Amino acid sequence: MADLRIINGTVLTMAPGYEPIADGVVCSREGLISYAGPADQASEPGDEQVIDASGCVVLPGLVNAHTHLAMTLFRGYADDMMLQEWLEDWIWPAEMRLRPEDVYWGSLLGACEMLRAGVTCFNDMYHIPEQAVAAALDSGIRACPSGVLLGFLPNAEQLLEEAIVFVRQLQQQNHSRIHPMLAPHALYTCPDEMLLKVGEGAVEAGVPIHIHLCETASEVQDSYDEHGESPIEHLNTLGLLDIPMLAAHCVHLSEADITLLAEKQVGIAHCPTSNMKLASGFAPVPELLEAGVVVGLGTDGCASNNNLDMLAEAHLAALLHKVHSGDPTTIPAHTALAMATRLSAQALGLGDIIGTLEAGKRADIILVDMSSPHLQPPRDPVSHLIYAAHGSDVKTTIVEGQIVMNDGEVLTVDEAEVIARATQCAARVTDIAG
Amino acid sequence: MADLRIINGTVLTMAPGYEPIADGVVCSREGLISYAGPADQASEPGDEQVIDASGCVVLPGLVNAHTHLAMTLFRGYADDMMLQEWLEDWIWPAEMRLRPEDVYWGSLLGACEMLRAGVTCFNDMYHIPEQAVAAALDSGIRACPSGVLLGFLPNAEQLLEEAIVFVRQLQQQNHSRIHPMLAPHALYTCPDEMLLKVGEGAVEAGVPIHIHLCETASEVQDSYDEHGESPIEHLNTLGLLDIPMLAAHCVHLSEADITLLAEKQVGIAHCPTSNMKLASGFAPVPELLEAGVVVGLGTDGCASNNNLDMLAEAHLAALLHKVHSGDPTTIPAHTALAMATRLSAQALGLGDIIGTLEAGKRADIILVDMSSPHLQPPRDPVSHLIYAAHGSDVKTTIVEGQIVMNDGEVLTVDEAEVIARATQCAARVTDIAG
């Protein structure tokens, strides 16, 4: 892998308090950022591969803090319906048919889509997670893999044991781009006893917990009915909030919940598209940010989105809370972009290694081409990224110093094969007669 | 102009009750659609230019039912602020500096952006409207131009007379792609006497009225305070609802308003991005559609969006009303796509000539490339268009049988020159010291 020197671009380091650097340079050496700053303070060029970022903005790779990657197979399979019908009549029956190769090709299709859209890291929760790992290793993307632990499955206990073994094995293999987690699906699908065991496993392995939390109003009501406290209070009662945690959704929260999330430094993956498409509700994101909670962004799975475009997610985060609060100053563009990068990384417990362009961090870098008519005239690049750009404006995607996508082409895998194989898998899995 | 024969695509005619045609053919002859249907029922090929739409969906061009096109110059100029500050401290002072060439290049930049994103027709309301006409004629896009009539301007009466002359001249010139309107800005900026004169002018010239209506809660309250009735009731009192009308926004409506809009067949341009970004509120779109009101979609101007991507607008329309109503079956994908095509055309009074692919209508046609990873695996193309596609997936744009954009390149103008000139204009207009 060649070292890289990215020149002539406008650099957004996304570090707290950063200002855009009009003539910036970003260098990577052995997969780490060695410099990100003004051109006139950079070291002399050596024998690095030079990338000309003229007309581009250079920023950290986008971090998708919550998805179910292989659900690309279900894109467009079941839209515009009630949550229970969607799950029980469509998604779960199809997932019963999943074979390892389905998860592999579905994950790889999602990895191609994300790399094209500048997403360099994803936090996954899905069945047969070793296949998502294989897809991540093959495509060159960074991943936080985990299986789905569901208490109602007959082999729930076995799956939990396997999940802990999975984490341990990945830790031994020590892939620099793979950061495993343990993922109990949700409070309403995992009994307390199981959650406690997950907590023990997470502490022993030193990995965070990835969980769905307070996505729907009924989930919260059920917790009050069963436990006399909110789901977040109940997790605290169980001691689980003292373990690093990424909680997806967090739509229906009390003030006490928000205080607890801030105090316990729980990371949040806000998923605005999914919350809108499934009519889950409006997450109190301005209130969470005000309380000091770290709120990142996630796409959720492709059956409830239906894409993996993190710029679209940041766009929606900026728009949704304006109209919901009635205040057009809510979640300004720079906050939305921070959520898609630095805050998502922090929420995943990876804030020390990714999420900003700072020397010593992993060289996860994207170039966004700002030359198209819809991004003209040139002005604040952060405004254009959030309010006008699409994932397809990403020109180059770099993960740990490796150029994995350039000019709309993923360089690490054969995209035509990925599409063909994923299409075959999708046809079989969703063929009701199959 | 060669006649066209588009083969091998999946055709969505968007006519009421249509079904996708898997192997469809669309033919244009002398700028009109001569056939749209299954390949096996099409006439034998003649000497038409053949367009291979393999891997593409073929559908009517998208219709942007409300914009202020030259405001592309203000893209990213003033975001994330309160409406009055935005207007009074930023937009209006900049607009005071506009020269004809600014409006021309700003409109042309917007036309390039729209043609790339599959928008074949736009309904404009902006100063110096002959420049938007020039930009439309030069770029090949279809336009509904109108100036902005503001009662508080010292030369308001003169501007109204000029607007009527403008309409009459365009009617004499009889450009087949130019459909002028008369545009009083809004009820709160135009006194009754002026509105009545606009109405007379519209009736005499036989053109529709284009107006902002019920965009903010305070506008509605002011109408009750001043007139003792809602803005819509007041327009009815003035007799203006008996004239064909395109009303933009319609966010704050009573049940009586909705009944009146349906009874009087007022066309609506719903602008979800603008309503979200400016925190205007949630338009009662499901209720309007239920009442039989024709609701199209508009991007609004680039200072409150900040793009002109009608697929994004349709996407947001599908998502926003789900979360607002709490019902995920609200505004399904096929309704959102109808809003961006057939219903927008109807709302503009152009339902007889554009908005669907039917023999005899103008050949305004787009091809959307569905081969990218984010639009795979292949399934319901309408779902993919609404929930996963971007404007940049549009491969070819045809207006009245002329190919005006192909493979991301506008063929009618020099895009590099347009961007350079628009950037110069924007710099001068928004330079506070200038």
Please give the number of β-strands of chain A: 16
Uncertain ranges of chain A: none
What would the average pLDDT of chain A be, to the nearest integer?
97
* Rg result of chain A: 21 Å
Helix content of chain A: 25-40%
CATH third-level topology of the largest domain in chain A: TIM Barrel
Per CATH, the superfamily of the largest domain in chain A is Metal-dependent hydrolases
From the helix content, strand content and strand pairing of chain A, which structural class follows?
Answer: alpha/beta
Tell me the quaternary state: homodimer
**Main beta-sheet strand count, sense and barrel state of chain A:** 9 strands, mixed
| Domain module count of chain A | 2
Summarize the structure.
Chain A is α/β, with parallel strands linked by helices and 434 residues long.
